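Sample entry (217 residues):
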Amino acid sequence: MKKIVFNKNTFFLVEQGILYWPKNFVLVVSDLHLEKSSYFAKFGQFLPPYDSIETLNLLDEILKQHKVKTVILLGDVFHDNDGYDRLDRRAKLIFNKINNKYNLLFVVGNHDQDINIPNIKTYEDITIDGINFSHKPSNLNSHQVFGHFHPKILLKLNGKRIFKKCFIVSSTKICMPAFGVFTGGLNVESDIFKKIFKQNKEYFLIDNSHIYQINLN
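Predicted structure, serialized as tokens:
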């Protein structure tokens, strides 16, 4: 884990791509994109249908490792509005268990904007202690945590190119990596990130059981 201070609060960036806020016992995770493989299957692109169960099992294990009361799902939890209905029995049991055990705050994203799940209230955004949590960055004059862009760092090591998920952190913004096991990514060198992060920023690459601060200057 990597400790950071954001809006005078201590947070931890966790290797698997989640944000932990110990003061409020909050765990934040973004862009699970559950049932992405089954979505593509509807259009004749048949992929191994294990992305949802693998993603949810990983989230369930991480939750056991931290003292958590509230889980913020930061948008694009499902790859489309019908994704929950396509979860298989095992995956649905895990999802419902998490919902029943924790205070689950389901922020909608562009992929699941109109989703309707039993016993789940959805939000456009949530503000806690002056920090706004939303799927996309907003024009609010506040500290923001968001996802959506699936940031990744492209590095060349020993003649090989590696493309790894990362956090982008500035004094007022945190961009979360995608948590789902079946997600692509956008290079942090993209002009999109240059427009969002106009001030100094730091990159934290996640690689299985490690997290590394990377200097791209």
